[in-house]
UniProtKB/TrEMBL annotation:
The species this protein was found in: Rhodococcus sp. D-6
Name of this protein: CehA/McbA family metallohydrolase
Record InterPro entries: Pol/histidinol_Pase-like
Gene3D superfamilies: Metal-dependent hydrolases (3.20.20.140)
Record key words, sorted: Plasmid
Amino acid sequence: MIAAYQESQSTGRYDFDAELPPPVTLFWKYIDRCDMARWLDAFDSLSRGDGIWADCVNGIISFMEDPLPPNTAVLRDGRLVLPPRLPYVIDRQATTYDVFVAGTPHAPGTVSTHEVSFQSPVLHVQGHQATAAEPIESSRLLLRADDISRWTVVDDRGGAWFPEGVLIKYDAHRQPYFYGDEVEIDVPTSDLTVRVSRGPEYRTVSHSARPAAGEVLTMDLSLERIENDARRGWYSADLHVHLNFIGGQICSPADAMAAQAGEGLDLMNVQAANAWGATVYEREAFEHYAGRQVEGVDGRLLTWGYEYRNDMFGHFHTLMPEEPPAIYHTGHAGSDQPHDWPPNAVAAREAKEHAATVGYAHPVFWPISDDVNPAFEPHRARLPVARELVADAVLGLVDSVDIGQPAHIDGAEHLYHRLLGCGLKLAATAGTDAILSHKRGWFQANQPGLYRCYAYLGEDRLSVEAWREAMRAGRTFVTSGPWLELEVDGRMVGDTVDIAGPGKVRATVRCQGDDVEYVSIVGPGGTLATVEVGRGQELTTLTADVHVAQPSWLAAVARGGTVQTWVGEQPQAYAHTSPVWVTFQGQAVANPQDALWCVDWLDKFEQLAREEGSFAEPKQLEDLVEILDQARYKYRSIATRRDMTG
């Protein structure tokens, strides 16, 4: 598998294959150079396929930040424009520039890579030249940590420095990082900042240094663990990670294990998946390891599954199926499965027959509300919203929903709450969709575990089976960092509190996290109780006597700050638990308003499929409608409080 990627990479392609259209490839590769706010303003135009695609390079240039980001040059209108802060370059090393040459009405724009070095710091482009780097003397850092960690080394101009042989990574905020426990790096003799971290369970350590020319400076750094959660029965996971899925560099399983250890993840679920064509990246590895857990560094588990992908119906990930599926994807025009058939429900049922869990990934890409839902606008039909989730969940084919993920947090939360209001026992989970082969880009270049979920295994030893059963029982919470636990009348998430009728239950939330601004208890009626958290306050407890007028669900949410992402502002600190269920003498929650909202969702989904779907014959559409009809029947039964069986 790796050899095939290496052969493809030797041809100079970015995607390890020949199936991506050049404009798509360019945007994947260079989107991090763009001003995200301006790019988002044009998102609808891009999704319709018009606008800048005719000359992709000019489109990228038009969205570029001003001033230019590091190591980026633009030749336009007879001028060679460089960033204001030139990078350092040291002896025996070069630095690369991506040079964008604007197109004309008669010729498309081009982009190429150029090197400048200590001996030759001048950039030459089509008869233009400019000094593009500052030569400087070098020194060496020897970095050592007590375990594999995530490192960042930057100079006083923001330049990033990496050791040889590691995956070079820049996250969505252009912060560089790499993984290791003992590494050597040649660096400039400038002011340097060194940061080391290992996920949210450890405190990040930051040091400054200015090594002298020729000096070897050693830094031994140990990370303080905030709380050893595994000793209390909680184990972390990222359920949606890719190794090689375009991205410009090749990620081996050893690289993946280093990333997992460097983020302190107990379980990392790697997904085989296609992109736009027939190639299923990591298929060979998945089929080799199907049904087997792989023990990584210090007893951590690396698992292999597959992401089943239909961009109109939605994507779902699987956790360690015992066998490969009959097909891996549908609805991609350039693939061997070009039509939107069979429905996702068929694939989900097969996955569950193979002992896998099914979790819908990145459910919603925009804010949604009772009245507004952009997921069904025709020009967005091929953006992979979890449209079939609403049907598959009520049919008992889904175990979890990734509300911790790179798409829209509030939109995913709104959809999740609607499904809970119908009494559907879906665990809250997380999947970053991180692609380890990505050097830089959008969210795909983020570290795995940026969002993660914890499952409570109690006294059980860490294993995929134990983690999977805890998730199916709803003993989970999702987080970007804060620790969050909920008890209702002494029962934990996933449990049921049965009371005689309308009355009060006592809910207690425990939250730990520096950036949290408020903690809330939520249910079918929205926010039921909340407490503000003071700046720098690490531990917060919220206890409230909640009046329950009808069978219900209760969950805890923590939020703090905002950060700009590719789908708009998201909470910087976020955590959400699975619910505790409150029943009245065995009668479960069945909110008519939520059920009818789900019926409306399915009606809109059917209309979109009729207008924008790709079906080889009418029977294929009928198969989807049959699934939707079964789901609508169950939701209408919930709305009228009829028995859901049958």
